[in-house]
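Handout, section B. The chain below has 118 residues.
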Amino acid sequence: MKTVSYTTTNVLNPLVLLRNMAKRENNNLNMKEALSAFIQKNKLQGGMDKVDARAAWVRLMGNGVNNYTTAIELKNDILYVSLSSSVLREELSLGISKIISMMNEELGKNLVRKIILR
């Protein structure tokens, strides 16, 4: 049986917890600033971008396209969209550059560089 020894640098140590609590900033932040700081500190921006890209696709394309959309995934500036209709896939491929510009405008930054319809 293994024995685990806790040192003063261990997270479970009450002294470390008190020290970390003392480091908290006493600045009053509004909700937007607090969430932005939390996202930046925990390196969550990539995940937030993925969620935002999915939501932007749903808002921009509407019910007609969303009924045939089976999956939406953002990887490295490329938005992968799976569609269940080959006819719709062909129609959307004709206006792919317009969709990219609309997506980036909706997102407020150049997040989507390419869209792959599959």
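Note. Residues 45-117 form a domain with the GMP Synthetase; Chain A, domain 3 fold (CATH 3.30.300). Compare this with the example in section A.
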